[in-house]
Every structure is written in C-alpha cells, then in structure tokens.
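TASK: fixed-backbone design
INPUT:
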C-alpha cells in the first residue's frame, strides 16, 4: 500500500475528487494548507502598495491505495489538477506498512 499526498490549488479539489471516485477510491482526507515553492510566494498590490504573500493557500489531499492503483491515481490527480501554470502542486508517495480499521479491527488492504 502507498500513501499519496497531493498538494493542489483549492479550486481544483472537486475535479480531483471526481477523478478519484471514478477510479474507485473510497476515502480521502483533505486539509487546507499554506506554503510556497520555488517562486517563494507571489507579489500582490493593495491600495497602491506592493507586498509579497509568502504563503499561498493550497489543499492537501491524502489517500491510501493498493500498490496496483498508484500509477492510475497519480495520472488522475495530475490530469485533474493541472492548469499548466506555476503552482499546480506536487504529489508525494510513501509506503504504508499497515492500516487498521478501528471499528471492525480489519487490517491491511481489507481496512481500506
């Protein structure tokens, strides 16, 4: 199993969610986050004064999937979240040793 963390633009969340549900992904955790990448934020102008917004609002989507689905899920997120502009985000993939469903005690892929 793998954990995929996708940092995406907030307005792309619905498209990503729809793409994942079409693949059969049944659950996800979504968190509002702030951060910056290579660009270091963006320059804004307010009442004639320029200032830099260091942290840009983003959404972090976390899902756990079977190893066989990783490639399809990455493609779906990439296609749905891409705008072609700076700040489209990143996907991080890490291994998951075990999953336990608290209510039933199911473990492993059965707990997904």
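OUTPUT:
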């Amino acid at each position: 199993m793998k954990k995929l963390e996708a940092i995406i633009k907030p307005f792309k969340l619905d498209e990503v969610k729809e793409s994942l549900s079409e693949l059969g992904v049944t659950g996800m955790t979504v968190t509002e986050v702030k951060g910056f990448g290579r660009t270091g934020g963006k320059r804004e102008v307010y009442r004639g004064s320029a200032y830099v917004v260091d942290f840009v609002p983003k959404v972090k989507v976390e899902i756990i999937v079977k190893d066989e689905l990783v490639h399809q899920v990455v493609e779906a997120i990439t296609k749905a979240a891409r705008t072609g502009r700076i700040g489209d985000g990143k996907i991080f993939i890490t291994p998951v040793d075990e999953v336990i469903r608290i209510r039933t005690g199911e473990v492993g892929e059965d707990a997904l």
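COMMENT: The beta strands are 2-8, 29-35, 42-46, 49-53, 56-65, 90-95.
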